[in-house]
Amino acid sequence: MREELKTKYITNKRFEIYSDLNTYNNNLKKSKSLYIPLSILEVSLRNSINSLFERLYSRGWLVNEASFLKYKELKKITIAKSKISENSEAISKDKLVSELTFGFWTALFQSSYDDKMRFTNLKQIFPNLPSKDELLVNRQILSTKLNHIRKFRNRVFHHENIIKDEFENIEDNIYEILEFFDTELVQYAKDLNNE
After folding, report:
1. d(CA 105, CA 147)
2. Burial category of 38 from C-beta neighbours within 10 Å (exposed 0-12, middle 13-18, buried 19 and up)
């Protein structure tokens, strides 16, 4: 790439984060390779949680802002409703599910939702979750993994540097969570990446 293109379109400030153009290129390639599994994970998570909460509480648990939701999550619902209204669209359950951020869905695994995320409920969200005898996976462990993935996802989706030690095992974590839904999702993500 010509030097003038680098400085004009990518910016010198951007390159200060990377040691060289090759590192920048590797960052782009890694982001590209994980975009599909991240997207599948995000959609699977929100749909699975929504399905469970519709069964437990009501089909309108989001639209009606269920009483168990904490202030931050209620605020995110209000923001999502405003965005939908600004686009002159009707506020529906399905539209709201897709408009809410990944951060909203991962927040539901925080300790303040411990009573909603008991192991029996986790098994409904993640049908392929290992039994307690096979591997200890509880709300706290899932919260930690999902928030780590969320931070990584935000860096990927905002074109930031992801070549960092803290993300060394992130691909394994993403595929592990996908496998908790269904092993077929792992294969689906890998197949799409190979097309």
Report:
1. 10
2. buried
pLDDT in tens, 134-165: 988 999 999 999 999 999 999 999 988 898 88
At 13 the pLDDT is 61
Q: Whole-angstrom Cα distance, residue 184 to residue 109?
A: 24
pLDDT of residue 8: 66
CA distance 193 to 187: 10
Mean pLDDT of the chain: 92
SS3 100: coil
What are the C-alpha distances in Å from 25 to residues 32, 33, 103? 11, 12, 28
Question: Which residue, among 195, 193, 181, 146, has the nearest Cα to 31 in the 3D structure?
Answer: 193
Which residue reads 């359950």 in tokens?
93
Look at residue 128 and tell me whether its pLDDT is greater than 70: yes
12-25 residues labelled b (16+ CB within 10 A) or e (exposed): eeeeeebeeeeebe
8 A C-beta contact, residue 117 and residue 109: yes
| 3-state DSSP assignment of residue 154 | helix
Of the candidates 12, 24, 42, the residue with the CA atom closest to the CA atom of residue 159: 24
